[in-house]
Amino acid sequence: MISIENLNRYFKSGDTSFHVLKDINLEVLEGECVVLRGVSGSGKTTLLSIMAGLDRPSSGKLLVDGESIAKLPDLHISAFRAKKIGIIFQHFNLLEHLSASENVMIPLIPSELNMTEVAQRVKRSLEIANISHKATRPAGRLSGGEKQRVAIARALVADPSVILCDEPTANLDRDNSLKFIDILKDLHNMGKTIIVATHDPLFDNLSFASRIVPMQDGSIVSKEQGVGSSE
Amino acid sequence: MSSKSFLDKPFFGSPFFFFLTLEFFKERKKHIGVVVISLVILFLLSSVLFISSSIRYSIEQTLDKEPDFVVQKIQGGERVNAPAEWIDPLLEIYGINKVTARVYGRYFFKAKRDSFLIVGVDFMDEQSHKTLESIMDETDLKSFLSSDNMLVGEGVSIYLKEHFYPNHYSFLTPKGDFKKINIFKVLPKESNLIANDMIILPMDLAKEVLGMGEDEVTDIALNVPNDDEWDNVADKISAFYYDLRVVTKHDIKKAYENLYNYKGGVFLILFLIAIVTFVLILYQRYAMVYSSERRHIGLLRALGWSIRDVLKLKFFETIIIVIISFIVGVVLAYFYVFVLGAPLLKEIFLGGANMKNSLVLVPVLDFGVLSSIFLIYAVPFIAAVLIPVWKISVTDPKEAML
Asked: Do the bridges between strand B98-109 and strand B82-83 make them parallel or antiparallel, or are there none, so unpaired?
């Protein structure tokens, strides 16, 4: 599903160059749930952004469904993101002036669906994320947990095969974090490939996660761990 | 537009137009300041252009009725009264089809040093008859000529009323006599641009008030139907007398244009103020888009929107603002100029005139000018939005969202 080979990412600031991702090699199979585990600054969010096509690698290979996305032109990479990737951000990134359902429909606007189809998909996604009852509420007036569920619905609405979650529980309390994990389990059962970048210990013992990939200083530090083993 | 309506009663347009209207109405507060300032600028520009187009139109209409040539007598470089005997030789020049002796001059109202334009008209002349037909019918004409009467412009009428002469005025002639003349009619408002301070008198009466001899005229007007012959005819006329000057319609037009351009200078300042304000708005718009839209655009891009999709959304959003501002600004300007009569602004054009002028601005819509305003306004405005949007769109969505 996702294949990464010798991937590097440098950031330049003036004359200084920062080596943020160092020789990353990773394979994620279809339907797998993988947790990228590491402290802040370990490079897991950058890696996730590259997998989502939001950022580009400085060198190395990245294949998603057999297609190299590192050098795709804008129109293709946008279409790739719209169809194959659903992203759940740490800060939810909702447009606060729009309602929950209007936020959820955003990924479908450039598609060729008509409004009836869009409405059907939005309804279904809101149901899966268990937030239908707040569909008309402006995003700015939702609680953190509700916002996160709207973000899940938005990530699902285009029916992507891969769901990328960047620190999804960083702004949630324990109860809401557990609810989020329950939804994630449902998504896994639906056959979605899930990659979670987090430093939240709640993800250490996910029954449905196949692997935990520890990261440190831009590298995958040791052999990947099975779920439940200590770092 | 609530989301409930879109989930339960789907919108029958495309999702793109649904989202466009949604964004536009839900973020209307963000646009309102720009729309209001744009409206003021467009209103000012359109008002100025409506006034100038209307006055230009009126001047052109008036000039069309002017004779092709005016022959004047010159003494010491100044115009003096010409002898009426010059008329006959002019009639003999081939190509000239009409020669008219004209009598006019200024009469100063001593109390205030204001002046009226006295114009003598031969009411029996066919051309004059036609011109005055709309104001006086046959019965009126007989009655008008039966005693000492005058036709006055609206400005003169108001002025005389203010000085307690509602029905007549006694002119002090250069000989020191008083000549009492009754006000027969007030000229229509539509003629105010040229006739506001005008008094029309029968030829003999005008000569008496202006102190001219019976065999004198102010100048002689003539028409030459063939434009190609104008130079030849002018040369022939000039050859008659050494103290003669020929003024063509073109010269008169130039004199009007000079006067017009002088007044236009004041408007130039207004234009400059409007343009400077507009540039400031563009800068503000540019800076605002760059700072406040970054996260929004970055998010749309992260959710699968291409650069083209983002530009399309922002283009339509901007074009709606541009069109609304333009239509409302132009309609308000039209109402202000042609319905309300452009209070304040009109004074800049007509202020400083001899007499208060209640000129009626004839509605004139110059579509060339309107399209120019639209382009001058719309193109930089759209660019001021789309350039920063494009700049943000081409950066990595992750960076734009930070």
From this structure: unpaired
Q: How far apart are CA A9 and CA A20, in angstroms?
A: 6
Average model confidence (pLDDT) for chain A?
Answer: 87
- Within 8 A by CB and 6+ apart from B358, the residues are B154, B155, B158, B189, B192, B196, B341
* CA–CA–CA angle B161, B154, B171 (5° rounding): 55
Interface test with A, best of B6, B28, B303, B390 (most A CBs within 10 A): B303
Candidates A107, A135, A136; nearest CB to B303: A107
Cβ contact B3–A99 (<8 Å): yes
For A106, which DSSP code? Answer: G
CB contact under 8 A, A97 and B27: yes
A99, closest residue in chain B (CA to CA): B3
CATH class of A31-56+73-220: alpha beta
Complex ipTM, two decimals? 0.87
Does residue B383 or residue B13 have the better pLDDT? B383
Using one digit for the tens of pLDDT, what is the confidence trace for A112-168?
888 889 999 999 999 988 899 999 999 999 998 899 899 999 998 998 999 999 988
Taking the alpha carbons at both ends of chain B, their separation in whole angstroms is 30
Phi, psi (deg, nearest 5) at residue A2: -125, 130
Q: How many CB pairs under 8 A join A and B?
A: 102
Let me know the angle formed at the C-alpha of A171 by A166 and A177, rounded to the nearest 5 degrees.
80
Higher pLDDT, A161 or B114: A161
The per-residue pLDDT for B165 is 86
Distances, alpha carbon B206 to alpha carbons A190, A228, B82, B242, in Å = 104, 117, 15, 28
For chain B, which residues lie within 8 Å of any Cβ of chain A, measuring from their own Cβ? 2-4, 6-7, 10-16, 18-19, 22, 26-27, 295-296, 299-309, 394, 396-398, 401
Q: Which residues of A touch B395 (CB under 8 A)?
A: none
Instruction: Please say if the pLDDT value at position B352 is more than 60.
Output: no
| pLDDT surpasses 80 at B355 | no
A229: pLDDT strictly greater than 70: no
Domain positions in chain A are 31-56+73-220
Q: What is the pLDDT of residue B259?
A: 65
Chain B residue numbers with beta carbons less than 8 Å from the beta carbon of A127 are none
Phi-psi region of B99 (alpha: psi -120 to 50; beta: other; left: phi over 0): beta
- Of residues B6, B4, B397, the one with CA closest to residue A109: B6
Question: Does residue B120 carry a pLDDT above 60?
Answer: yes
Q: Do A87 and B302 touch (CB under 8 A)?
A: yes
